[in-house]
């Protein structure tokens, strides 16, 4: 089903120098939106080595003149939504043009000094913005280890997974308005929590059990009409790419509010995403067979092809008293039971329509080892087993001033396809006005 495309050729090189551990070799070509720190210009871009490549500027020179993109100024916008709506053949055409333009043996950009200066900007001279106007955000719960851990802690260790869990990808509708770009600082949320001595009378308080969740998200392209489900088989045509997601969570607010309808305020205060969307095309070499699914899913959820991705995912924590981030979790996207094709098919099977730029997060991605648990809740086992930091501090949940950084990358012997990082810092709660 998936031929090796020349844009993934490990021997392909760019005229722009790329370090061997860079997340952005010519085989990646992720999409983002940047703002120049110099003149404030906002533009759609890709990344190569330590540079962003201004696609808005390139588009204006008329280089995107193939059958899918000609006459469609999709790169002259401030978000990627219109480009995402065009669909897979347009995405492939753009990737192939950009790959050629950046390759070492193509003179068009390489030898045009004035154009190169307009198009290539060092990453430290731009600020990355939210690349997509996200209309809807859904969060799944698709890691078996995570669901088992949380079910054991919050409910019953003997029946950690609810009876539905292996029959459908459980999820909830999240809050798109508070999806923020990496680097956004967040105030600790406040709300109703139960004091330790009470089972049924809440107090108003700042969140004391503030947490992150290590997740990957996918974004949809064209989308479907209301009433017309997207099948597992057609998912490929609708999934534009993946990004890193941190689904910040207030565990004490969650524990009191979530029954019977699921997370509400515990998770609506912020969800942070990485600036780069890595395309399915770039991830092609990292697709692998998924876990065996037993019981066998119903026919509409039966997966075809390889939809599991081998992507290393790391989480780092840095307190205000530390001078560098410390790794507290090493997981992998392959630790997901339900895959993104199944998630999309399930989401739309009722006829629910999805739109270009909608975001679907995987759910916390925990592996079997304790060191691969994707949240503080699990790493500190509900606060009973603190995480020791190298400067002598310890943590059960996040404290004010803590900064969480997640990174993700897939490796071959020849190159690395990375997502960059998603970072966020917890600031003290805001005082409520009387
Ligand atoms: O099982 C629960 O009660 C709660 C689970 C979560 O908080 C996880 C959630 O948001 C979905 C996920 O990230 O896997
Ligand atoms: Ca989550
Ligand atoms: Mg959230």
UniProtKB/TrEMBL annotation:
Q: Give the Enzyme Commission number.
A: 3.7.1.2
Per its UniProt record, what InterPro entries does this chain match?
Answer: Fumarylacetoacetase (IPR005959), Fumarylacetoacetase-like_C (IPR011234), Fumarylacetoacetase_C_sf (IPR036663), Fumarylacetoacetase_N (IPR015377), Fumarylacetoacetase_N_sf (IPR036462)
* Keyword check for Calcium: yes
Annotated Fumarylacetoacetase-like C-terminal domain residues: 138-422
In alphabetical order, the GO MF annotations are: fumarylacetoacetase activity; metal ion binding
Q: Which Pfam families does the record associate with it?
A: FAA_hydrolase (PF01557), FAA_hydrolase_N (PF09298)
Q: Which cofactor does it need?
A: Mg(2+); Ca(2+)
Top enzyme class: hydrolase
Q: Which residues catalyse the reaction?
A: 146
Positions bound to Ca(2+): 139, 213, 215, 247
Q: Which UniProt keywords apply?
A: Calcium, Hydrolase, Magnesium, Metal-binding, Phenylalanine catabolism, Tyrosine catabolism
Q: State where Mg(2+) binds.
A: 247, 267, 271
Chain positions recorded as substrate binding sites: 141, 155, 254, 258, 364
* GO biological processes: homogentisate catabolic process; L-phenylalanine catabolic process; L-tyrosine catabolic process
Every copy of the Fumarylacetoacetase N-terminal domain together lies at 27-131
Give the family from UniProt: Belongs to the FAH family.
- Tell me which PANTHER family the record gives: FUMARYLACETOACETASE (PTHR43069:SF2)
Name assigned to this protein: fumarylacetoacetase
Please report the organism this UniProt entry assigns to the protein: Fodinibius salipaludis
Q: What is the lineage of its organism?
A: Bacteria, Pseudomonadati, Balneolota, Balneolia, Balneolales
State the encoding gene. fahA
